[in-house]
Amino acid sequence: MLIKPDGVERRLIGKVIERVEDAGFRIVAMHMEHLTRKKAEELYAPHRGKDFFEGLVEFMISGPVVGLILEKENAIEDLRRLVGKTDPARADVGTIRHDFGMSIRKNVVHASDSPENASREIKIFFEEKWTE
Ligand code: CMP
Q1: Which member of 98, 112, 119, 129 has the lowest number of beta carbons within 10 Å of its beta carbon?
Q2: In angstroms, what is the span from residue 104 Cα to ligand 1's centroid?
Q3: Distance from the CA of 52 to the center of ligand 1, in angstroms?
Q4: C-alpha span between 2 and 97 (Å, rounded)
Q5: pLDDT one-digit tens code per residue, 40-92
Q6: Atom of ligand 1 nearest to the CA of 111
Q7: Is 130 a residue whose pLDDT tops 80?
Q8: Mind listing the domains of the chain with CATH numbers?
Q9: Which of 50, 68, 82, 105 to mutate to test the pocket of ligand 1 (most atoms within 8 A of CB)?
Q10: CA dist list (Å): 44 to 4, 15, 90, 99, 125
Q11: Catalytic positions
Q12: Cβ–Cβ < 8 Å for 125, 39
């Protein structure tokens, strides 16, 4: 999971982490960083070519982000349910994006959509020791 620049700027790190821990996730690693353009483009490589790609990358390098490696049975699906739909206006009440998100871009958090993407994203964001 990544807490995006809007989440950090709006001092939502604690609230996001509280929800994640209350939902039964264990934080395995956590790291704050101001992404380079190269790293942001790599993280969002599957979206390259889409009309929102450039704006998304600009936004992701506008301030620091917090990356978390989370552990739980059924983690991918359960985290995506906790986070809610991409567009906060369409996300269910009680989800992180509904409750804190401002727009489809400023939607507070990113959650990996598959084990393969989680592993790919962890490799890009974290040190080598977390890539197993
Ligand atoms: P995220 O889960 O981080 O994955 C890709 C991101 O692209 C997504 O959250 C949104 O913040 C952003 N995104 C998706 N669709 C659009 C869109 N139509 N316009 C702007 N940003 C978008």
Answers
A1: 129
A2: 6
A3: 7
A4: 13
A5: 999 999 999 999 999 999 999 999 999 999 999 999 999 999 999 999 999 99
A6: 2
A7: no
A8: 2-129 (3.30.70.141)
A9: 105
A10: 13, 25, 22, 24, 12
A11: 110
A12: yes
